Amino acid sequence: xxxxxxxxxxxxxxxxxxxxxxxxxxxxxxxxxxxxxxxxxxxxxxxxxxxxxxxxxxxxxxxxxxxxxxxxxxxxxxxxxxxxxxxxxxxxxxx
Length: 95
Description:
By secondary structure, this protein is mostly helical. It is about 80% helix and about 0% strand.
């Protein structure tokens, strides 16, 4: 984890995890339960790497902004699911 102290290395690792998460979300939906476990594992991995990069990395605004944007891009499926469940709960429809 010492290599994550370098700002560009941490951003690159987070970018690769974000791209992998988007690819799994868009293409491997037919896998069933493995699909959700894979998305959850990638989400936890991105959370851990982003956390380590924020704690050990430089305190610059562009580094923090880059990590936050990559986290949002990679975990868009969580935000989309949470918004869907919230809208369903407020409007009275739930599957």
